[in-house]
Specification:
By secondary structure, the protein is mainly β. It is built from no helices and 8 strands.
Length: 90
């Protein structure tokens, strides 16, 4: 879910997974894209933090990457860069 939070003047998003975990992000503009500061509660009750980067490549392509990640206070490697490409509809 993505929405505008008028009380804080920011874009926020929420993610829920089928195992019981969930995440909330607060988004801001960044170099050629957006940056989300994310707090997650894992299905096992652990807590994770990350910075999520959406970077525009063209009008039809962008990348997403999760960086500066921690789980229960321990650093974990950055996520891989994922490239998304818009495809023509039917």
């Amino acid at each position: 879910m993505i929405g505008y939070d008028a009380s804080r003047g920011v874009i926020r998003s929420w993610l829920f997974d089928s195992n019981g975990g969930f995440a909330e992000s607060v988004w801001s503009m960044a170099d050629n894209g957006m940056k989300g500061q994310t707090t997650s509660v894992l299905a096992d009750g652990g807590v994770a933090y990350s910075t999520d980067l959406l970077t525009r490549i063209t009008d039809e392509q962008f990348t997403v990457q999760s960086v500066n990640r921690t789980i229960d206070g321990e650093s974990v490697p950055d996520g891989e860069v994922i490239r998304a490409v818009r495809t023509a509809g039917e």
